[in-house]
């Protein structure tokens, strides 16, 4: 077996250490877990509150924990209002570039005007505190305005990723009983227009709750507008009701902010509910400490705002921290595979945060594309969404970061609201490990009986404590939330993440993958991600998936799928070579039964491999909920 813990250690440079927002991990970590409420209260003090909280943590309804109860706030108070009274007022809040090269910029002052106008439009449409507004938009500034406008007036937003189609949108509208839908005529992807309004029309036919549809004009698509239901946004903001002044609603810390559905990698998506107070504190603290954000930084989280990564680290965390955020609507390789690198050079981006799948996708085109550009503005690089295989980690570190930028590999979930396991810039790194728990969090790896396993043994990842950014429930389904995630052991509640992981001798955590993606082969437990990583370490493979299928003797047998590098043809010899390569890397026990060469893998639209779909196909079974499958 390859022993992950023995892999190389990448130490931060003196520069990184000298300018780090948090210069040392261990002492602050010890303090944060021994004085959890004190630590979080100190972080909360850095934000503005209309009224200070009475209690930092209320455990009386555990596992339905509440944070900063009695406090009055609104996330918009911290994300926008506070900046209007300080030097950030005229600072750039959002830089947006469209796929066709169009650019729009907004200062914090400008952002406030846009959000206030949008909020007044929503009010004029009868939207009230507590209403759920569904947002289905391309990656344009209006998507962010709409989210913030909802929050500003106390409405709950439910953002549905603009890459989804009718089914996914309709089922989320139904689940949320939304009365108002915000959309756009269309979006851009690879030079083609995506017909969002038409998809929205079809979804609305199935969702009778929608009474009002507000449509932003982003393209020149012909769309149908239903006279009493559909309104052009540009018509509405031209009316006197859309004044650029709007009071921010003073809310309870525990008032709901948004619903967001999980990616649906393992089953049907769950509508996680997050609240104003704790989420503000958690996203801004994690963003400031782990990503070391500085006032002069230009921050680019290249996720879509429609995922939790976008909610927490495009919109809320960075705006609360007064950062300048980059937003790009379009494909990473359009018109050429240097598009992202061009953006980094053009705007002087300092921190890039993206996913392993995006990194592998761009790596496939070779070094010559990034090498065309001056990427020296980059200071830190981030990764999220899946375990990052060491091959991709090293490419990201060496070719994109010129060996100077720490890789902040962050493990977290829609449910957790923000980073849970991640290095600080000063943490020595091991490629493929998200390293250590973020402050305040105690994370252990346990066996089926709930006992902590020994170092280097694989088990279930659990979080032993509440944290401010945690989801409060599954929307309208407290029972399911409690049953799915929480376990009571000796009177203490533990959060079960659903992932399997191990801790090495240095206490570094290696997330292996989802619990149901750990294969038991001849009595050994193997993670699909490890097998995939071994395959991808072969120079001719760029993407891979591994699944287990029932086998009479072994219990499970490993079957794999591989996408080959550009110009490489699949053959029986290559399949054998790849199987032997995995056996060499991981041990004979992990040698796959076969390798199937494919052009694409079934992925969620956030880029995660849906192994359950491969498995169902291989077994000729029903493929289950496919609403989040990429086309
Ligand atoms: P669903 O819960 O609907 O099946 P999902 O788990 O993919 O979908 P998300 O909340 O978007 O939905 O993803 C969280 C999961 O992504 C984690 O539980 C973990 O499996 C994986 N993940 C995220 N970041 C990392 C990381 N840095 N390293 C390893 N795994 C990660
Ligand atoms: Mg999940």
From TrEMBL:
Name of protein: Acetate--CoA ligase
Family: Belongs to the ATP-dependent AMP-binding enzyme family.
Species the sequence originates in: Thalassomonas viridans
Biological process annotations from GO: acetyl-CoA biosynthetic process from acetate
A GO molecular-function annotation: acetate-CoA ligase activity
Coiled coil regions in record: none
Domain Acetyl-coenzyme A synthetase N-terminal: 25-79
Domain AMP-binding enzyme C-terminal: from-to ranges: 530-608
InterPro entries (alphabetical): Ac_CoA_lig, ACAS_N, AMP-bd_C, AMP-bd_C_sf, AMP-binding_CS, AMP-dep_synth/lig_dom, ANL_N_sf
Domain AMP-dependent synthetase/ligase: 87-470
EC class name: ligase
Name of a matching Pfam family: ACAS_N
Alphabetical UniProt keywords: Acetylation, ATP-binding, Ligase, Nucleotide-binding
EC number: 6.2.1.1
GO cellular component: cytosol
């Amino acid at each position: 077996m390859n022993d992950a813990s023995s892999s190389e250690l990448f130490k931060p440079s003196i520069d990184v250490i000298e300018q780090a927002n948090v210069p040392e991990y261990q002492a602050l970590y010890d303090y944060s877990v021994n004085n959890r409420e004190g630590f979080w209260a100190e972080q909360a003090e850095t934000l503005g509150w209309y009224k200070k909280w009475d209690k930092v943590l209320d455990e009386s309804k555990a596992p339905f924990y509440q944070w900063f109860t009695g406090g009055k706030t609104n996330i918009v108070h911290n994300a926008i209002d506070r900046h209007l009274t300080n030097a950030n007022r005229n600072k750039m809040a959002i830089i947006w570039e469209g796929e066709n090269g169009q650019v729009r910029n907004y200062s914090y002052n400008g952002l406030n005007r846009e959000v206030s106008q949008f909020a007044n439009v929503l009010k004029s449409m009868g939207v009230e505190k507590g209403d759920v507004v569904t947002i289905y938009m391309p990656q344009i500034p209006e998507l962010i305005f709409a989210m913030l406008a909802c929050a500003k007036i106390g409405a709950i937003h439910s953002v549905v990723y603009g890459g989804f189609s009718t089914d996914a949108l309709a089922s989320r509208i139904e689940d949320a009983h939304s009365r108002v839908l915000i959309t756009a005529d269309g979006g851009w992807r690879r030079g083609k227009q995506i017909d969002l309004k038409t998809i929205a029309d079809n979804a609305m036919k199935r969702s009778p709750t929608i009474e009002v549809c507000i449509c932003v004009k982003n393209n020149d698509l012909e769309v149908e507008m239903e006279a009493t239901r559909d309104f052009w946004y540009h018509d509405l903001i031209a009316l006197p009701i859309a004044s650029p002044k709007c009071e921010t609603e003073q809310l309870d810390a525990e008032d709901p902010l948004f619903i967001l559905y999980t990616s649906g990698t393992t089953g049907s998506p769950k509508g996680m509910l997050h609240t104003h107070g704790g989420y503000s504190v958690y996203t801004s603290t994690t963003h400031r400490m782990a990503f070391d954000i500085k006032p002069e930084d230009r921050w680019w989280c290249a996720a879509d705002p429609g995922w939790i990564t976008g909610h927490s680290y495009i919109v809320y965390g960075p705006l609360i921290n007064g950062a300048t955020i980059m937003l790009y609507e379009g494909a990473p390789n359009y018109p050429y595979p240097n598009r992202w690198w061009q953006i980094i050079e053009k705007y002087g981006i300092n921190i890039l945060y993206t996913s392993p799948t995006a990194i592998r996708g761009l790596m496939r085109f070779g070094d010559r594309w990034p090498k065309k550009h001056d990427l020296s503005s980059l200071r830190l690089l981030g990764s999220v969404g899946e375990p990052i295989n060491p091959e991709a980690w090293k490419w990201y570190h060496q070719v994109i970061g010129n060996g100077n930028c720490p890789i902040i590999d962050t493990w977290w979930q829609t449910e957790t609201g923000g980073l849970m396991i991640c290095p600080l810039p000063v943490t020595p790194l091991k490629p493929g490990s998200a390293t250590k728990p973020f402050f305040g969090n105690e994370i252990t790896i346990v066996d089926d009986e709930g006992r902590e396993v020994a170092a280097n043994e694989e088990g279930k990842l659990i979080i032993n404590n509440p944290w401010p950014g945690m989801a409060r429930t599954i929307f309208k389904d407290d029972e399911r939330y409690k049953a799915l995630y929480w376990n009571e052991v000796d009177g203490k509640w533990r959060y079960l993440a659903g992932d399997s992981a191990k801790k090495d001798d240095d206490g570094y955590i290696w997330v292996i993958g989802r619990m149901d993606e750990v294969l038991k082969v001849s009595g050994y437990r193997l993670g699909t991600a490890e097998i995939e990583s071994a395959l991808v370490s072969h120079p001719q493979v760029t993407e891979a998936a591994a699944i287990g299928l029932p086998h009479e003797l072994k219990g499970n047998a490993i079957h794999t799928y591989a996408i080959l590098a550009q110009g490489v043809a699949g053959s029986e010899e290559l399949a054998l070579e790849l199987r032997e390569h995995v056996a060499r890397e991981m041990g004979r026990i992990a040698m796959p039964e076969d390798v199937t060469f494919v052009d694409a893998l079934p992925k969620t639209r956030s880029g995660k491999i849906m192994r359950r779909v491969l498995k169902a196909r291989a077994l000729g079974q029903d493929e289950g909920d496919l609403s989040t499958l990429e086309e």
